[in-house]
Amino acid sequence: MTKIVIVGGGAGGMEIVTKLGRKLGRKGSASITLIDRADHHIWKPLLHELATGSLDEGLNALDYRMHASQNGYRFEQGVLSAIDQVDRRVILAPMRDEKGDEILPERQIDFDYLVIGVGAITNDFGIDGVRQHCDFLDLTEQAMALRVKIRRRFLKHAKEHDVEQRHFKISIVGAGATGVEMAAEMHHAAATLRGYGYEISEDLLQVNLIEASNRVLPRIDTARICDAVEEELDKLGVKVMTNTRITEVTPKGLQTLDGQFIESDMTLWAAGVKGHESLRELGLELNQNDQIMVKPSCQTLTNDRIFAFGDCAACPQPDGSWVPPRGQTARQMALMVGDNIQKLMVGSQEPLEEYLYKDLGSFVNLSKFHTVGNMLSFLGGGMTVEGKMARLVYTSLYRRHLIALHGIGKGLLLMLLNGIQRLVRPELKLH
Ligand SMILES: Cc1cc2nc3c(=O)[nH]c(=O)nc-3n(C[C@H](O)[C@H](O)[C@H](O)COP(=O)(O)OP(=O)(O)OC[C@H]3O[C@@H](n4cnc5c(N)ncnc54)[C@H](O)[C@@H]3O)c2cc1C
């Protein structure tokens, strides 16, 4: 039986494994295995909401093992450490607990087709002090740890007697969608916690949003979106610092290229992404950003049986550009890889599909304050939408992901449950 192994159950990986599991795995036409370092999936674009408590992981986390048993695939928890391309096997590193004691030994899993979708990590650009003194939003564990840290800092600062000490200075480096959304989320969290009795005065929360280029959202071309976002950040009191390049991070703050020192109690680094350094061990061709180089069919350059998609892949476009790292592209590429593997399995003479990036629009959600975006392909040209309509389209991306993973009936039920929970539980998760 053909063995298809998918490494990475993220935004794209979960969609391909669900589709192949239902179509091939359930019928016994192929054996489908998902490998992930974690034991549960949370849709990555929600991590900033998890970090502030706007999202309850209890309701939104999906257990891989349970999902596998219901959707025709097998799940193996582990970290991909090497690929034996001759004998077609992936090697998973031994799994250890927090103390370093081994839980599972090194394992080997055979494949006929291998699909890599392990996502990306935040790029620290090798700047001194970033890894040691900043927080990141790459993993669910980091988002959860950040939530505890934010709550403790709010508690500590609210109880300081010296007014100067009561200022809570947060720096967010990178004014892309993640940084901008996190800045708004911080204000939402502070306002909501104030309602729950935390003594956090609005004037004492200072959020600096720091960006090396000359505007917020440097990757979004629609001027109306950038203007609307800047306006809203200004209303919230977020200090936007463009043309500001960080050269070093210390425990007390950030040093800039032009000689300023920005004091900071907590720094979130969200300045772009790169591939995992561990990908260097796989024997595949990588670009300078540690992403796996692939052909437009998402096959790797040296092995047609190994595919890569999403944030970990560098996929060229006919105009010479590269596919951007986004949830929507990870999903589209992953589904295309699934179709291409099925063609190879039956020995089809048809050429494999090639990935052509279709921008379905960009949306930025400033917590409960505002949502703005543009609908490109939907309207065959482009139209900026704001407010409730924009919020509806923004949330529909996650809804579509839920339906792809659970089917329409269960997906709709989960959305209903989420809606009910929002009515009966605190707006922020407090424990
Ligand atoms: C806060 C935030 C907000 C965002 N908002 C948006 C948005 O609004 N719209 C949008 O389009 N995009 C958004 N993004 C980007 C989007 O989340 C990513 O582009 C998308 O998740 C990439 O999907 P992927 O399948 O390539 O990887 P991921 O979703 O990152 O999944 C990778 C999976 O691989 C697993 N893994 C990693 N390394 C290994 C290993 N060595 N072995 C085994 N498993 C491994 C991980 O546990 C994870 O499950 C946002 C990102 C963040 C952080």
UniProtKB/TrEMBL annotation:
Domain FAD/NAD(P)-binding, residue spans: 3-332
Membership in a protein family: Belongs to the NADH dehydrogenase family.
Naturally occurring in which organism (per UniProt): Ferrimonas aestuarii
InterPro entries: FAD/NAD-bd_sf, FAD/NAD-binding_dom, NADH-Q_oxidoreductase
Cofactor(s) listed: FAD
A GO BP annotation: aerobic electron transport chain
Molecular function terms from GO: NAD(P)H dehydrogenase (quinone) activity
Protein name (database record): NAD(P)/FAD-dependent oxidoreductase
Keywords: FAD, Flavoprotein, Oxidoreductase
Kinase as UniProt keyword: no
